[in-house]
Fold:
Amino acid sequence: MTQAAVPEMVPGPDDRVGAVADELAIRNVIARIAHYSDAGELDDYGALFTEDARWEMPGVPVKRNRGEIVAAGAERRAAGTAGPGSATRHLVGTTAVTVRGETAVADSYFQFYGDTGGTPVLRQMGAYRDCFRRTLDGWQLAERLITLG
Structure:
């Protein structure tokens, strides 16, 4: 006689509401990172990352903490390649979020446009693999791995 499989517990209404709230909060962090990168204050941008956040993109030195990530944003702004007045925009979409307790992973595609004051030009596109951590300040980005293409 074979033993019947034990069905997985179906989350109750309160669990589902919490899961949806977590997913929406994470999606908002992803959107705010793009918004603040383009037009926001660097302090607001930095607050979306954990202190020990890691940022990895091909061809760019790895950033190993919030301070380095914010400093890189300031460098891009000073060079006029991103940020207010640069006529650039980050578009992020096709995002899938998986929450597991106090951590989460989100996979998204991105496009980075220049010359947005006229006829926009696609400068980069690729994918983000984002790892999040729930903190006392809410969900924050702990790691972003960027692939191009």
